Amino acid sequence: MNQELIEKLSLLRGVESNYVDAWGNPATVDASSKAALLSAMGYATEDDAKLEQQYQANLASVWQNMLPKVLVVRKSESYPLELHLPIDDLKVPVNWTLELEEGEKLKGTFTPLDGQLVGSETIEGVEYKALKVFLKLDAPIGYHTLVLRNAKRKKLADTRFIIAPQASFIPNEIASGKKVWGPSVQMYCLRSQRNWGIGDFTDLTYLVENVAKGGGDFVGLNPIHALYPNNPESASPYSPSSRRWLNVVYIDVEATPEYNASSEAQALVNSNDFQWRLGELRGKDWVDYTGVTQLKLKALRLVFNTFKETVLGSGNEREQAFQAFVAEGGENLREQALYDALQEYFYADGINAWGWPSWPEEFNEYHKPAVAKWAKANPDELNFYLYLQFLADEQLAAVDEKAKGLGMAMGLYRDLAVGVSEGSTEIWANRDLYIAGAAVGAPPDVLGPLGQNWGLPPMDPGKLIEQQYQPMIDLFRSNMRSCGALRIDHVMALLRLWMIPAGKDAKGGAYVYYNIQDLLGILALESHRNHCAIIGEDLGTVPDGISETLQENGVHSYRVFFFEQAEDGGFISPNHYPVQAMATLTTHDMPTLIGFWHCDDLKLGKELGLYPDDNVLQTLYNDRHESKQKILDSLKGHQSLPDYISNDVNWVGMTRDLNYGMQVHMAKGSSSLLSLQLEDWLEMDKPVNVPGTSTEYPNWRRKLSKDLDKLFAEHDVQELMSKLSDARRGASN
Question: What pLDDT does 567 receive?
Answer without folding.
Answer: 87
